[in-house]
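Quick one: structure tokens for this chain, please?
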Amino acid sequence: MPRRNDIQKVLIIGSGPIVIGQACEFDYSGTQACKALRKLGYQIVLVNSNPATIMTDPGMADVTYIEPLNAQTITEIIENEKPDAILPNLGGQTGLNLTSELHKLGVLEKHNVKVIGVQVDAIERGEDRIAFKEAMKKLGIDMPRSEPATSVEEAEKIAAEMGYPVVIRPAYTMGGTGGGIVYNLEELRLIASRGISASLIGQILIEESVIGWEELELEVVRDANNNMITVCFIENVDPMGVHTGDSYCTAPMLTISEDLQKRLQKYSYDIVEAIQVIGGTNVQFAHDPKTDRVVVIEINPRTSRSSALASKATGFPIALISSILAAGVTMDEIPYWRDGSLEKYSPSGDYVVVKFARWDFEKFPGAVDKLGTQMRAVGEVMSIGKNYKEALQKAIRSLEKKRYGLGFAKDFNERLLADLLEMLSEPTSERQFILYEALRKGATVDALHAKTYIKKWFIEQMKELVELEEEILAFRGKELPDALLIRAKKDGFADRYLAQILHRPEEDIRRQRLAAGITETWDAVPVSGVENAAYYYSTYNAPDKVGVSEKRKIMVLGGGPNRIGQGIEFDYCCVHAAFALRDEGVESIMVNCNPETVSTDYDTSDKLYFEPLTVEDVLSIYEKEKPEGVIVQFGGQTPLNIAADLSKAGVKIIGTSPETIDLAEDRDRFRAMMDKLGIPMPKSGMAAHLSEALKIAGEIGYPLMVRPSYVLGGRGMEVVHDEDMLRRYVMNAVDVTPDRPILIDKFLENAIEAEADAISDGKDVFVPAVMEHIELAGVHSGDSACAIPPISIPARHIDTINDYTKKIAVEFGVIGLMNIQYAIADDVVYILEANPRASRTVPLVSKVCNISMARLATQMMLGKKLKDLNLKNKAFRHYGVKEAVFPFNMYQEVDPILGPEMRSTGEVLGLADSFGLAYYKSQEATGQSLPSEGKVLITVEGKDKSGVLEVARSFVNIGFKILASEGTHKFFAEHNIASERILKMHEGRPNIVDAIKNGEIQLVINTPAGRLSKYDDSYIRKAAIKYKIPYITTVAAAVAAVKGITACRQGHGRAKSLQSYHAEIF
């Protein structure tokens, strides 16, 4: 069937900010959809609230809206743009839920907008737990026994009849949000109430437990002619009970019989045919190996995290093909490299793919490292090898957890076997590393299988790795025989890991390996559905099958797995580098291992190597391809960590030199340079041990900002108020980077923070914008809201910031991008730090100011000069406010306060013609809409009371009622501000939490009680999160919130496209 001609303009809904459970795989799928549909001749209107994505670049769609994702906004966009169709199944759960809501409101019918790809009733059948159960019953497909509940009492009754443990699954959510496994009544009450509040429709399913069964997934694609194919069979190595986003898994299935795979395929086809999805669907099954019973767990009638993995694992671009199919084209019209056309597709490939998740529990003090049905991972890596062992070991070294193999993690090697077995009782992020040491200590495969339900085959494979490692360890201090080194490399052992366990330098291992003729070779993963495309992976188990071109070429190193502190913003920069290189006629070579990203899409660069970002792997590619140079400044900390070693091994780094990058991290050398340039810096020092730290503290004076050197995302950073806190910090935190000292800076209290991004060619510098942080100094820049242009910084300070930024970039000899952070205290501009690399604000500045910074920076690296580009600072009428999005709803045990250590997973952007409205829209985009009326709870600690007076007055002026705790209530009374006293939890009932539960409070403003009583009021913030009440924990944000509410009352404004904002820049 040819493309549909009854539609000309398609609206695509993005998935919004990156949160746990919904990450940048939707940027990848949305970007593919834009490319596919525009190629077919359709006009594309795109809406998303996430500025860090490639899809929201103004060139990706015909019209781009960076607006809050809610029914009101989408309705306005439909009225503005009059699309003929909406494509909901590429925007994750957000896209499906919004389309469903617009349908129920009658908006789609009123404006004659067709839903393509997945029908609205199919969304309900897939997402509504009751409707799904009915649909499965009709098809005769077994499901775990289950009953829906809409109250905790109902849930208690069902669980009592079913018998514990039971699983709780909220409807219309993703990432297992609000769900969990419960083993007793107390846990049921907690998780059931959490699940009901997390569900869009207040519905949960109480389900029989299938913990310990095999978890198996199929990724299937269907077209309008009812052709169906299975793109990928995924086997979760972790059994049922661990969310698939946290499970480590393989493709193809390695231990599942052909018969069972055929059964699962038949069930999947029956389901997608019944639900009538066009495009990709993910179907999850559980299989009991004892009884052979198969049950379907759930389906996702949309592209998902698993479909991004399946796409990259097989070379089948599911989102691209789904978009083409949604437009009416069928699979027999799409090319397939093996058998002519796509309906003949079947998974093939003589390789194994392993996906491994990355967690950042250490970022959340108080978080419990335990894996269950609610997803906790913040990112993932994918590796490809010729055998399972090779792929597994490549995955481990891709994670960037300073682990290059499975052994000797933490202190597991020193523990008794009994301890290790006890640690395996519940799944944790360390499970595979503990298993490895348990095997080394003599645990049997049977015992470990009984403890973890992980299939024996996988444990046996791991045991073989342990046995080989023990053979290798016998040569510690001696020459390792070549024959043993060859065996180690074929089983995936990294040079760095062998060096570590043999106590030798990595270069030694590399020299011996090369002398023995052991080199990495490469093979291809061909891409289906397009002509002549492939990407590449390394192996030590096959001959080299990949040729190289003689063209001029440059390598770009990607950012590896998403994590807190390093997200999609860096992938954005890498993608732009690849685009810019292509436009300049240079062959781009991308190296990355993150399956969720646009950079690992087959057509982003000219050549993609799906590889870990380690010295060994990058160096091997460099020596094969012989590029002109390597770009390291776009992938965040990942490439920077290996830049010096690469340079030492002869790699040409283009752009800013590794020496400059090092200089920016070396506080003493950096301070000397700032003194030379006459740029003020807060007093600071470096300490290698406690006595030094105390001496520096005595000289500088408290409060202090302390942190380890060489980190990203404020890892291990803390504000220290006195000697006790400093002693505690040094005892606990020095181990973050033992070979580096801790940095101690004077903390500037009540300082306004600002930052500037710059582009430099080494001689000239262009600063497109200065950003002002909303939160004061002490909150990590990645977690603070920020505004472009600045709202309260005087023009003379902005001139100073521009002047300092230019001086530093020239002095450093920066070629490419640079980010500098400043603090303004007592009318003085201080520099806090300079980063001669891309920062997470690059996409933000690019979109607000209409300047493609990463592209320009790439051109600088290729030798272009700024003076030839005629760049000028332009004036614009609009404001952009970035707000951070936090995963506290997934870590309900953690106190949601902000500090110098970054905790956000993603961000949104509010655009409007006034700061107040832009701030309001940024809050709306996070899902925490500010109320327009009602009661606001204000309870702040002593030092914040004077600052909050103005806030309280403003709230009263616009008609809000104020509730306040005893101290704040008295303070308001003294200043003639009317408030009603409310009790804290320890003061009796009804108290603050009762009022939150009863919906009597519309906004919470609560700055944490002082250091000594830090924990006594966290229940207020935790209750606000649980009951979805907007909460604010800093006075600065409260001031912005009042401005936002006031502006919104004067008119919310209409949704306006990015292109319209850009047209008004002059």
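The chain has a mean pLDDT of 92.
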